[in-house]
Amino acid sequence: MQLAIIGGGPAGLSAAIRAREEGLADVWVIERSRFLGGILNQCIHHGFGVHIFKEELTGPEYAQRLIDKAKALGVNFALGAMVIDITQDRTLTYVSEAGLVTAQAGAIILAMGCRERTRGALGIPGGRGAGVYTAGLAQELVNIKGYMPGKRAVILGSGDIGLIMARRMTLEGATVEGVYEIMPHPGGLKRNIVQCLTDYDIPLYLSHTIVRTVGNKRLEGVYVAQVDENRRLLTNTQRFVPCDTLLLSVGLIPENELAKKIGIDLSPVTGGAFVNNRLETNIPGVFACGNVLHVHDLVDHVTLEAYAAAANAVRFINDEGTAQVMPVTVKAGEGVRYTVPTSILHEGSPEDYTLSFRSDRPYTPGIIKVFAGGELIKAVQRRAIIPSEMEQIAFKLERPVGAIMIEIGEE
Q1: Which one-letter DSSP state was computed for residue 330?
Q2: Of 88, 75, 95, nearest to 3 (Cα)?
């Protein structure tokens, strides 16, 4: 196969579409589920596709448009196929109903998405009764399987899936006692705070966390407490909140076990691969895009990133523009948690680049500065910069420099 794309969610499907549009004949999407679409299949709320399709769609509608286009373009699919190994020479092995398959790929795009952080990762003490779910699992139970996890819920973490499930549980007749967030600022998009919590009178408690759970056979309630600016527990603020369901929306972890196996360098901040401006990892011919690279707010941004990864993978396969050049390091300066990419392959002539990044805290207002070789080349003011929303900035680099640094500060 010329191009192997691991993952059949929005990133994988978008990459496959662009690769076929670029003229690549043999494009394969390998998906471990029996269905294409990934997480979008259970995201039945609207708000997808405003940038790509210029209209608001539900998650399944957005996925179906990608699926229909990929099939029309002649993309090959291996469904119910689990990739168990890849090598640095781009040989991959997967297992499916057809048996064990080994194939050599001209290039590989990693598009496996994320998994949720679980209770075990948090180490919450207390009973181990039924009723503790990740928010994504609860979403699947309600939206796809038609099961209600419980009738009285508490949500830990203010990530977007947790906010959306607060609304969904309410619409299905459950009572949501509150959303508790350990940080002093929300973890989800502003629109979800308004549409999912404010509009339904669901309280959001910032700088709060769950101390322990109560209940052996079934969850009976949780103890919550405030934390200080260093996230240390204020024990005198503990109180009991009765509930039969606890939903965890405490972060996503890029699904990079395969990347670890072949020695791809991973960021300790994002959990995704370090990539250059071509979205290529440190293993030549292996690219990454979507949530397996870094967590995105909008699926439209995932699609655009996947388009770029696919276009560069096609260039690699066709041996175009693959001459080795010295990379320009991209550094996350003051106020910036991480950047994607972390290096730029500048080939000498002036070229436009775009950096994606997140702030370390809210800045209202704030200013974004880009430095090239220590010289300020661009400054952009924003009314608000918040960690829950990914920022992007475009700039032109006239010549190779020692390093590029991006900073965020007060206006």
Answers
A1: E
A2: 75
Token pair listed for 62 = 């957005």
pLDDT of 324 = 66
Which domains, and CATH codes, for the chain? 1-114+252-322 (3.50.50.60), 118-250 (3.50.50.60), 325-411 (2.60.40)
Average pLDDT of the residues of the chain: 94
Which amino acid is it at 261?
A: K
pTM strictly above 0.90: yes
Q: What is the pLDDT of residues 62-107, one digit of tens each?
A: 999 999 999 999 999 999 999 999 999 999 999 999 899 999 999 9
Residue 196's CB is within 10 A of a number of other CB atoms, namely: 26
Strand 239-242 to 221-226 pairing: antiparallel
Specify the pLDDT at position 322. Answer: 55
Place of tokens 């730029």: 344
Q: Which residues contact 243 (CB under 8 A, 6 or more apart)?
A: 131, 150, 152, 153, 154, 177, 219, 220, 221, 222
| Residue bearing tokens 């502003």 | 190
Beta-bridge partners for 157: none
Picking from 388, 265, 266, 406, the residue whose alpha carbon sits closest to that of residue 331 is: 406
